[in-house]
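Notebook entry, structure prediction.
Reason for the run: the old model in the group folder had no record of what sequence produced it. Starting over properly, with the input documented here first.
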Amino acid sequence: MANKIDISTIDLEKEREKITDLPGLIQFAHNVGSALIKPEDKGRIKGNALAAMHDQTDRQFHQLYDQMETLVKQANYLKERVAISERIYLADMGFSPVINKIYHLYKRKSGQDVLSMVAPKEWGKKIPFEEHVAEVKLMSDHTWEILNSAAV
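New structure, fully documented this time:
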């Protein structure tokens, strides 16, 4: 014989809490075939989000650092170009330089700079100057591109 249920022992108000018109909004599975619902570990979620945020900002800081490093290199190159250009325009020059041609800046023993069309290898056994300072090319804006520089 089947067990009889005593309806007087059932708390209907408590059972009503287990029933809903919108089963997708309750915090537990509403029938046997429902998906398992586990509470979220909010600390882990926040920790993962925080780690991802730090990783992304570190990447952006490295990108900015690389960009700053590139700008510093460009600024130093410009400073070197200005220094060489100033030396060239103060140097002895027996000709009028032509745009896009390669020239050589030398330093005499007296300290005076000389701009020449002759490369160090073209002088033969002995270069008549103390030092080859730079190999340069005259640009169309009348600045000098440094192709090879020994010293500034």
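Summary: The mean pLDDT is 85.
The old model has been moved to the deprecated folder.
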